[in-house]
Amino acid sequence: MHAEGAIRSPYAEMARFLDATGQEALDQKRREAEVLFRRIGVTFAVYTEGGDPERLIPFDVIPRILARDEWERLSQGLEQRVRALNAFLTDVYGEQAIIKAGRIPPELVLQNEGYLPQMRGFVPPGGVWTVISGIDLVRTEADQFYVLEDNCRTPSGVSYMLENREAMFRLFPEICARHRIAPVSHYPEELLETLKSIAPESCSGTPNVVVLTPGPYNSAYYEHSFLADEMGVELVEGADLFVRDEMVFMRTTAGPKRVDVIYRRIDDDFIDPECFRADSVVGVPGLMAAYRAGNVSLANAPGTGIADDKAVYPYVPEMVRFYLKEEPILSNVPTFMCERPADQDYVLANLDKLVVKLARGSGGYGMLVGPHATQEQRDDFAGRIKARPGDYIAQPTLALSTVPTLGEAGIGPRHVDLRPFVLFGKEVRMVPGGLTRVALREGSLVVNSSQGGGTKDTWVLMEDPPAEGQLALPPPEEPAALQSQGQSQSQSQGKSQSQGQSSRQQQGEG
């Protein structure tokens, strides 16, 4: 909605539909969606709260809708930002020109735990570090999009984007048919082509791609198995791979099979016990030696965490100017660095107005939403900031726009963010839209699923919906794929879980 409460034009047809449908029918659709997601097995895991760790992410049946021109502007800004982040990674692990030019403090990069000295002087195959990026965006009531954070390590959530679209086609075929919705179902194909495009030069023939998971105890394991199944590639754990003569092989019933590209969903620390944490039982010994030898590609490259560190985030617009010689299309949220004395003084004096975050936190943990916090909570964070100022950043609580969301008491406004997924190989690829996360609690600004948030389908309209009474158009995607989805997913997960139990060491993704 606009700040004054007016309905945005892309929502005009949806508003008429919702008025005609009524609360009771919408509640029934919400229950059907829950049954559908439970049957397919669309879950995430939380291991820190007791009880059954497997949870359904709440799905709101009212989509978030963007106009085509809005998306075109966003996609241009996203491509620009990802190219700049990739250039930054190439530079800080190489010549470090941006540091020498004084555009970013050297200690912020070189002494950051996200910076891996092991990657110095290394150039990934194709020169691409950030093969898959998830860029979190928020929109203000003034209709301006801001980048909230960059996810360049192992961004998750794309499976929910795809399953949300399938669910909407099944639950609401009539309203989907009245909109020309840009498709997203081709994302797995785009992902596979991108992964193949970064295959090492030593690869001969069609690259063999695998998805490397830490196992079924990982919070995003459903997504790992889903993407492997959708791409038609093997889902493997560390024990399924081995390194010989600086080449990576997969154990199969027909004997060893060489692996060329690994889409790894394991944190840097755990991917190779010979290079990083020696106690890792989910990695592949010798993997980094094979990587450095140019015999295997990893997506994303180890060391990309320095690019999405929240303390580095304020410098991304400067990266765009420094590397691309362009002005940033997308703006950052103004950010205060608590390690700077002046910024720290301002933050401590205004904790009731700011959002304070851990510089290296994720999942909505370690965060203070000042306007909604108690004085006791604010005092606690003040002590934390004084003790370890470099661990914290702060941002103003923006006047975020809202979208209509179905609640127990009816349809009401809720805050959302948007995570588009950007693929970077020989070219940049994006499917229109992304994952919309919604703060289901009234007034809440926290959208993370682990903190009570939910998701929505995200529609990018290829054209305005027809006026009332005009001929309805068929949806651009065929929902029939959902009919076999439950069976194929259960087969995929059954196959994956038979590969053996894995450590719980790595439980979270961005």
From TrEMBL:
Residue ranges constituting the Circularly permuted ATP-grasp type domain according to the UniProt record: 63-439
Pfam families noted in UniProt: CP_ATPgrasp_2
Biased composition (Low complexity): 479-510
SUPFAM superfamilies tied to this protein: Glutathione synthetase ATP-binding domain-like (SSF56059)
InterPro entries per the UniProt record, alphabetical: ATP-dep_Glu-Cys_Ligase-2 (IPR051680), CP_ATPgrasp_2 (IPR025841), UCP005522 (IPR016450)
Region (Disordered) location: 447-510
Protein name: Circularly permuted type 2 ATP-grasp protein
Lineage, opening ranks: Bacteria, Pseudomonadati, Pseudomonadota, Alphaproteobacteria, Acetobacterales
